Each structure stands twice: as C-alpha cells, then as structure tokens.
Amino acid sequence: MIHKKIKIFSILLSLLLASTQPHAADSLLSLYQAALNYDAQYKGTVADTQADREEINKARALFFPKAQLGGSYGRGDTDRVSQTLFGPREDTLKYDTKNLALTVRQPLFNKETLATYRSAKAYVKGKEAILQNETSTLITRIASAYFELLYAEEKTTVLQNKVSALGQQLGQASKRFEHGEGTLTEISEAQASLDVAHAELLEAKNSAEAYKLALSNMTGLQVEVLAKLNTEKMATIKENFGQLDDWLKTAIENSPEILSAKYALEVAQQEVEKKQAGHLPTLDLVGVRSYSENDSNNTLGSQFDTTTVALQFNVPIFAGGFVNASVRQSVSRVAAAREELNQKTRDANTNIQKYYQHLQSELLSMQAYTQAVKSSEIALDGTSKSFNSGFRTNIDVLNAQQRLYENKLKLSKSYYVLVNDIVNIKHIAGVLNEAQLQNINQFFLTN
Predict the structure, then answer these.
(1) What is the C-alpha separation between 143 and 127, in angstroms, rounded?
(2) Which of 86, 261, 379, 428 has the maximum number of C-beta atoms within 10 A of its C-beta?
(3) What is the fold of 24-64+110-280+316-445?
(4) Are 277 and 326 in contact, with CB atoms under 8 Å apart?
C-alpha cells in the first residue's frame, strides 16, 4: 500500500513539474512544419495534385494494346418455310446460339494520342507549379500572422508600460493639485490619456488573440510563446540581400505562377495539335480470336473457330467543318494563354520591384526610428527633470511619453514589415521554401 502511494505521488509530481516547464518557443520553421500536416488549404492542393498526376498515366495508356473479351449465349426459335417438289414446307427449329470473341487492338499511328500525352505532361507540370506556389503561400500566410502576433504582443507590452506611466502621472497631478501646485486641466489631460491607453491596450490584446487563433487554425497547435525578433541581425539585411536585377532574373526563371502560365501555354499548343489530328489517318493492328455456334439461321448446325490479324486504318474525309472550327478555336486559346503568360511575367516584375523598393525604404525607416527612439528617451528624461524642477508641466511630460511610445511602436513595426518584405520577394521569385525559411529564422531568437 505504501509503495502504491509513493508511485502515485511520483506520477503527480512528474505531471506538476512538466506543467511548470517553460513552453518551447515556436519558430516560423516549426509552425510551417506543423502546418504541412494540418492546414486544410494546403492539404487540399496536395490531394488535387496527386489526382492530377494520374493524367499522365491515363494518356500513356492510349499507346498500349487494348484487349476486349465479348460473348453471348442464347436460345433460338426459327420458323422456316422451304420450297420442295411437293410445295412449301414449314419447319420449326429450336437451337442454342454461342458466340465468344477476344479482340486485341494495338495503335500504330495516332497523332491525337501523341498530342494528348504531351498535353498531359505539360498539364501535370503546371499543377506541380501550382503546388509549389501553394507551399510558398503557406509560408507567407504563417509568416504574416506570426509577425502580426509578435507586433501585437510588443504593442501590448508598450501600452502596458504606457498605462503604468500615465497612471503615475495622474497620481502625481492629483497630488500636485491637492497641494495647490497643479491644475484640473493637468488631471483631466492625464485621465483622458489614461483612458485612451486602456482602450488601445484592450485592442492590442484582442488583436494578439486573433492572430494566435489564426496560427492555431493553420498549424493545429496551441500557440503560446513565439521566438522573438533578433534586432541585432537586422543590420545585416542590406549587405546580404542581393540586387534588384538578380531578383528579377530569379523570378523569371523560378516563379511558380510564371511556370504555371508557361505550361498552360504548352497545353494550349498541344490542343491545336490534337484538333489538327482530326485531318490525319489512324492505323491500328487488330487481332481477333472468335468462336461461334449456330451464329445465324444460315449456319445452323455449324461451328466456327476463327483467328484473324489485320491492319486497320481510318481516313477522315469530311466532318462538316467541325475539325477546322476546332482548330481555329484552339489557336485563339493559344493566343489567350500567351497573353496570360505575359501578364504573369509583368506582375512578377512589378511586385518584385515594389517589395524591393519598399524594403529599401523600410531600411531607412528602421534607421530613422532607431534614432527617434533614442532622441525621445533623451527628451523624456530632460522633460521629466524639468517638470520636477517646476519648469515644465505635466502635459509636457505626457506628450514626451507619447512620442516615445509612438516611436517605439513604429520601430517595431518597421522590423516586421522589413522581414515580411523579404518573405514576399522570395515568394514572388519562386525560391521560398523550407531551406529559405531556415535562413529567415536567423532573424529570430530560437534558443
């Protein structure tokens, strides 16, 4: 009994210790790996791609022999009238009918089959490009929610400090008023600022919960602690990020959307080949092995066991203009697919330039806000000392605090916008994958 109690106590102690262990920080990489097995949008695309891959097997099957076995068994009842020297004679014949045939057909030449196979290969490559794009999109969705959550948490911390500071300022203003040194205006200003800060704090907390829920919906994990941004690493971005022309070239070669449009153009071109094949002959090798008994009234009482091998060809002569109309229709769709490719290429170029220029701008903003935070801290310290000496008012201190908090939030926001621009550029360029995500992880404190 004592041993049993000791065992139960040990289990409870282990559970208690486990519950008190700090939760390991979730990184972008760990959340992405979890989402691969949970996110419904991504898994749906994976399933669709697996289904689309079978198009190649379906098209390849057209080149192989087709074997068909057919047969019938029945009962015949025939009334027969035959002419004799003595006049017409009527007979009733009852008999069994049997038919069995094995047919094997091997296509030898069919231009439409060849075009169908090439079209299927291009179609599947296009779907693979779409899957690659969806994989990259999954990273951008996780990254966006991740950065927004980190910013909301930092905003919550800043606003909590702001509420605390404003509460102290309100207390000081009240005491000064009680001693006849302050004014009701100072108290009102401090109270109004505090009320606004409480509202902003509540909004930031709600925003953080919303982004936690978004990440949970994508990963299936209960997100609690995120790896924080390593701001010291941010200074290395400009040197290691590369030039605009390099990213434009990479996008042309690797963008999943451009690749998908290229393969769609190839599918459209093969469709023209398929339709033009309607003017061409087809050639098949056909072998038949058949057995029949009482196959017709003329073969009653006879059995036939036959083997035939033949070359069978079909030459289209006239289809009422259907083939020509189909070819013209397919040619127009090639033109449409080519314009779609042009549009995707231009969009990629535009978006690469947009995010690259925005990244350069954010680098300057980050430097400016870093300096602004330092200046605001110095200004707040000087204003506070002047207030204590009676040279500044409480409103001056509140304004100085407000500027500091605003600059801190702007700096924080610029960090996340900067990293998000990196993610978006790599996404558009078609190189955003798990390996790239590991590189992006260097900007976060994962330990």
Answers:
(1) 24
(2) 428
(3) Outer membrane efflux proteins (OEP) (1.20.1600)
(4) no
